[in-house]
Amino acid sequence: MGPWQLDRAVQTARLDAGPPAEFWFRDLRHCFASMLIASGFNVKIVQARMRRASAKMPLDVYGHLWPDTEESTRAAVEVVLAARADSLRTATGSD
Description:
Layout: H1 3-15, H2 25-38, H3 43-49, H4 56-62, H5 70-92
C-alpha cells in the first residue's frame, strides 16, 4: 500500500468519527520516529526504519530529540586521557 492510499484510508476513517481533522498519516511517522529516538536508537536505525535514503532528513527534522552528548563525550575523552597518563606514569616508574 502506498502512502497516498493509506492517507486516503485515514481521511475516509475520519469521516466515520475517526481521528480528528488535523490528523494526517505523516503524524504517525513523526510519532514513530520520536519513539525510536526516545528508546535510544541511533540516526542510522531511524533512517532505515523510516525508509530514507540518507540520514539527513531524520537529523534535520528530529536532531533536537536526540540527547545532548556533549558532557558524555567530554567524560569519555577525560577517561582516555587519564588512562594514558596513568600508563605513562607506570611505564616510567614514577608516582
